Amino acid sequence: MRTGTISETVLKRSILKNICYRSDCLVSGPAVGQKCGARAVAGGKQMVFSEVSVTGCAGVAEEIAFERLRNDVSASGGQLAGMLITLFFPAAGEERELKSIMNKLAEMARTHEVDILGGHTEVLDVVTEPIIALTGAGFAAADTNRKSGNFEPGQDIVMTKWAGAAGAASLVRARRHNAAGDCLDQRFSNDFLDRSGSYFHKMSSVPDVDTAVAFGVTALYNAGKKGVFGALWELGEASGVGIQVELKKIPVRQETIEVCEFIDCNPYLIASDGVLLAGAHEGARLVEAYRLAGIPAAVIGTVTGGNDRVVINGAEKRFLVPPGTDV
Length: 327
Hints:
The protein is an alpha+beta fold. It is 33% helix and 29% strand. A hairpin with a 3-residue loop joins strand 2 (36-41) and strand 3. The protein is globular.
């Protein structure tokens, strides 16, 4: 099998088909486009669970992992309360890097009042970079109804922040952090790289979720690791709907475009942590609510009937494909 996240076909065929037990307490379980599971608990509440894993250097991977976990739990109706930490560390690594990762995770947990419940740390010869896996749990009200399966035909698709900004910022930060003599420094000015990397600390979509929920929105999806195009496909799959978006309406920063061109990647396919996709019947009004909250947002398209998920760019039409599919 190839490296990276497994394809949707393999997920359905070899993972989801083998899950054969569902208790009466299970509210929502594993499915394509479903980042969290939920289980009813005593006291008229739900427990929302999620898991993320990020590979990368100290100073980058741990912050991405924590914010991604917190974002996903929030979009599913919960508030992250506790997490388990699993660290796989390369044999060639140094203890100071391990300490740095744990210090940052502990600092973020303290800031957001998240208990560290336990975990596991292991050093492996086959690992070349640290792997950080976080399993989180949070509480939600029993009647919460936020999920990626709530998008309906006729809704506007509202997107917050900028496509690929998190991915570009993480690449810039990682390469500068490693002092690898990267040619980024030869191609771009320090001021340009500072602007591109500045998004790294803006990856939380919790305020975006709060604004959408106050507006009455229940159809929410964090773009996260799979980028804007991957997120659009998965929310369509989760809801059983079609998608039509206009490429020119998808917000993207100029710094992101230039960094992506230089390292030969697509800003619509790389990580877009902090970007929230919301389904609303009055998208323009939701955008105005975001403006008043100081959050950049735009209507980028609509939810349609059927199964076609397309991106329009002038006279051209591109069909979206499942994340991980070669195109």
